[in-house]
Design a protein that fits this description.
The protein has one domain: Porin. Helices cover about 5% and strands about 55% of the residues. The protein has four helices and 20 strands. A hairpin with a 2-residue loop joins β3 and β4. It starts with a helix and ends with a strand.
Length: about 400
């Protein structure tokens, strides 16, 4: 049924002449604190190009990514590989000047998986007090808010944000958000209560503490796994000349501790703290963005130490524009050189028996060159070099190779 709906949208849209806009119609109808030039990470959900059907209140958009890679592990490669990791569709509507709706539907791996990443109704009461309900994006750092492929110069998403934290982590719930400006300063906040994690973060095929395992549980969109809400919140401060810094928290009970009134286990908590920062250096226009997260959770004593009760990791991107000119009929083509630094430790601590450091960590460096024929489209060439050590600290596995990708809004 979903395929027929998507097909109908495409057919209908092909019969109209669209006018593409860098700022969506929805953004132009919202208060000034949400326009692109003053946008914060919390505005990313609406800060996208949309296509509008004439005077219709409904706007459409999306993006697609197509990748090629030749990567080997310890010198062994499976050869050349092509894939479409995702295609995402946006459907937005301005129901009233103070009521708007947006949905984000992602088709992964050529349509093998279809996921609703965002589908929420926003009611504006005051710039500092807005109600949001539906499938909301949990504010576990800035990347979870601002994850669209065309915005990044790198083919893969950051490892810490996908293999430690669950990227594009969303749940059903309600919350409040707001923003306030004063001169060059901006303040924003978000707070939500939603369904959350389940036992799979320690009962999974990875045989380690693995938060992304909860993403496979589609039942979280129907009911909570344990009757306990997940609290997520973020505060952010931005200065037009300095940049933006955000502090996030996500936490709650993750295990099923009772069923039909029968106590099965004690309540076990999960807590995630994240800090993110981005800035653009004056004159050089060097863009720097980074994020770091700490995870702690209560692990049953009966579990072995390969299930870590503490994790940490993050990334930093440095992007330097080196050329901006007209090329082959494309105006203002931008060429960037960039580098990403990554680190993840899935098991922070020492073995109880020997006092030796536990392994299970990874680091990577990814130099890149990107070309943007338009702000909404990017061609990316990456070289990924990564080393990962197992929990026992054996010699690391080295992964290296070339990645080439195209990503664009449409």
């Amino acid at each position: 049924m979903t395929k027929y709906i998507l097909f109908a949208l495409i057919v209908v849209s092909s019969n109209y002449s669209f006018a593409q806009q860098v700022d969506s119609t929805l953004l132009k109808q919202t208060p000034v604190d949400s326009v692109k030039e003053r946008a914060m990470n919390m505005d990313a959900v609406y800060n996208r190009p949309f296509l509008q059907l004439g005077k219709s209140p409904v706007s459409l958009g999306g993006y697609i990514e197509a990748n090629y890679e030749y990567i080997g592990e310890d010198g062994i490669t499976e050869g050349h590989s092509f894939r479409i990791p995702r295609m995402t569709l946006f459907v937005a509507s301005s129901i009233h000047r103070k009521i708007k709706f947006l949905s984000e539907i992602e088709l992964e791996e050529g349509g093998k998986e279809i996921a609703i990443e965002f589908a929420a109704l926003d009611i504006n009461i005051h710039p500092l007090l807005n109600l949001r309900g539906g499938v909301v994006m949990n504010t576990s750092g800035a990347f979870n808010q601002n994850h669209d492929g065309p915005k990044w110069e790198f083919v893969d998403r950051p490892v810490a944000m996908t293999e430690m934290l669950p990227a594009t982590w969303s749940n059903v719930g309600f919350g409040l958000y707001g923003k306030q400006f004063k001169n060059e300063w901006a303040f924003g906040y978000e707070v939500y209560l939603t369904n959350g994690f389940d036992n799979s973060i320690i009962n999974n095929d990875e045989n380690k503490t693995f938060l992304p395992a909860s993403k496979t549980n589609a039942e979280r969109f129907e009911e909570s796994s344990n009757g306990e809400p997940l609290l997520t919140g973020k505060i952010a401060i931005k200065n037009d000349k300095i940049g933006e810094i955000g502090l996030s928290y996500m936490g709650g009970i993750y295990n099923t501790h009772q069923e039909d009134g029968l106590m099965l286990d004690t309540k076990r908590r999960l807590d995630v703290f994240t800090i993110d920062f981005n800035t653009t250096l004056p004159k050089l226009n060097t863009y720097i963005v980074g994020e770091w997260a700490w995870i702690s959770l209560d692990i049953p004593f009966t579990f072995t130490q390969q299930y870590g009760d503490r994790q940490r990791g993050g990334f930093m991107d440095i992007v330097q524009p080196v050329l901006k000119r007209e090329i082959l009929g494309f105006e203002n083509v931008t060429v960037n050189i960039a580098c990403r630094l990554e680190y993840v430790d899935w098991n922070v601590g020492r073995f109880r028996e020997t006092d030796d450091n536990m392994g299970e960590h990874l680091w990577a460096i990814v130099p890149a060159v990107s070309l943007r024929p338009s702000p909404q489209t990017v061609l990316r060439l990456n070289y990924r070099f990564m080393q990962q050590t197992d929990i026992l600290g054996n010699p690391p596995v080295t992964t290296a190779g070339i990645q080439l990708a195209l990503s664009s809004y449409f």
